Records
---
Amino acid sequence: MAKKIIAVIGSEVCGLSSVKCCLDEDLESVCFERTDDIGGLSSYQQVLKYFRMYVKDFNLLNCIRFKTTVYSVKKRPDFSNSGQWEVVTECKGKKKVNVFDGVMVCTGHHTNAHLSLERFPGIEKFKGQYFHSRDYKIPEALTGKEYYC
């Protein structure tokens, strides 16, 4: 019997651990990452060093396809018999249709920043700067500024 192939979408903590679990269960795994590095939104934190060690220690790098965007995931026409999924990706301007036995979506719940500004009465009068924590990358940019949490 052929080894089952699992698609993992995203290479942050859930994606990386999913790839490792697949390998531990003797499944083949392909991880699609739209950027050129692991870590997702954690790429500006200390945890990225841990992710790099994790990938190296468990030899996961060869499972990750960088700069690859996933456009769609859908059941194959014969899904009721095969249980397989069709995943459409694009890398370097070339679209590709991939077939997998399973799919894990590990993009995280912070992929799209959401500022619930409606919960802050008077925000429309606020003259200062506000932004989502995912946009905080350079602490020096805020040096000498007042802030409120």
---
Amino acid sequence: MAFILKSSDLKDGEKMPNGQVFNGMGYEGDNLSPQLSWENPPVGTKSFAITCYDPDAPTGSGWWHWGVANLPASISALPTGAGSGKGGLPASAVQTRTDFGKAGYGGAAPPEGEHHRYQFTVYALDVDQLDVSEESSGAYLGFNLHFHTLGKASLTVIYS
């Protein structure tokens, strides 16, 4: 069976709801990380990490909206708002710095008139923990994920 990522807040290929949109930069969203759940991770999975990335940001390098690592292999879901300080992250979890400049979830906030994709990905990892901190950038998290990923599952939503 395939490793899959699902959400009760997001529908793959559809518009991101206001609950997950940024509150600031001209937007008035709720800025809540979405509920996410995953099934059928690869054999040997020791932990998980999750990212949200916007490849369409006008930066030349995209935009990291969320990174969380060191989720134990014993969990298979996060509740709405877990990355927004609403509870639900395990004690071992580490949220990394986003391109908003701080750790934690930062919702969609594309420039006016632009259509962007937001890729949520869960990574099954071959280590219990990655050596990352709240100061680690999305690129640094991605570098560590590259060397420890057994499998990944994604869903993409859009916002404009």
---
Amino acid sequence: MACLSFYLVIGGSTPAYAMHIMEGFLPPKWAIFWWVVALPFFALGLRSLTRITRTNPELKLLLALSGAFTFVLSALKMPSVTGSCSHPTGTGLGAILFGPLAMSVLGTLVLVFQALLLAHGGLTTLGANAFSMAIVGPFTAFWIYRLVMRTNRQRLAIFLASALADLITYVVTSVQLALAFPSATGGFMASFIKFAGIFAITQVPLAISEGFLTVLVWNWLSNYGRQELEMLNRG
């Protein structure tokens, strides 16, 4: 157990190029900037969650399921190239079910627990990680889902929403890293291409896999959580 704990704290936080930006990796001004940007979404998300749980307290279990889905998927770090790592995000499901503001809270709480328990991400970089995974990702999933649902193809909408939420998360993370560490020769764009290229090798297939997995979970919910889904539709 001691060896495992040592690995989680030391080995798990080694890669600098990771979908969760590691503790202390961002310059202080950028760490503060992303905290300031993320906090209003978190506050609005708390209001959204309060409204949901007061109106339909029966949905608390489904909320917990959405948070657990995000926690498990985003904790699955997979090695990429040049010492980097990639992982699914799992935010699409909750965004489709409860909206992006609710997921801004659930996703941020997931990031807090991962930073404290798994040394995955960090507290100083929590604002940046929350903005990419818990804010931009869920908003992307929500609007893609609504757009594709105009064709009445729900499973396609769920697949695209989840996959694109995953992809946009890595794009935003690449932007954040490029802003903080512009290349000495090519500036922001050269740095962005570098970071995005590192992630893309593993993140694209991961996003596709996450899309399929989310569809499978939705099928399961359609069979065993039909009452909760109908309650959400009425809401």
